[in-house]
Amino acid sequence: MATYKELLAEKAVLESKLEEMREVERGAAVDRIQQLMSEYGLTVDDIVGKRRRGRPAGSKKSAVAKEKSSLPPKYMNPKTGATWSGRGRAPSWLGKNRTRFLIAEA
């Protein structure tokens, strides 16, 4: 039975052979791709396609943008009268105990 160190050495040899074969086959693949590209007059853009940002030309915008409605205030600062709807970043006056500032529903 092989020892741990022997197996590690064998693994290292196999990994180096794998890397060598990968590079050889990779080079052959690149050569084949270049041959086909020149044979058919292709460019990299033909293969990959041009990458554009945003919407494609001719696409329509959304039909109708909904109008944003303001929410009724949920919290109120009794000292200043400032209100907050409960959405977005909480104001500093709110603190940790939000129940003190909660507006009673009618």
TrEMBL record:
MF-aspect GO terms: DNA binding
GO CC annotation terms, alphabetical: nucleoid
Stretches the record annotates as Disordered: 51-91
Entries under SMART domains matching the protein: HNS
Keyword list, A-Z: Cytoplasm, DNA-binding
Domain of life assignment: Bacteria
Signal peptide: none
Record InterPro entries: H-NS_C_dom
Family: Belongs to the histone-like protein H-NS family.
Protein name listed in UniProt: H-NS histone family protein
Organism: Cupriavidus metallidurans
Organism taxonomic ancestry: Bacteria, Pseudomonadati, Pseudomonadota, Betaproteobacteria, Burkholderiales
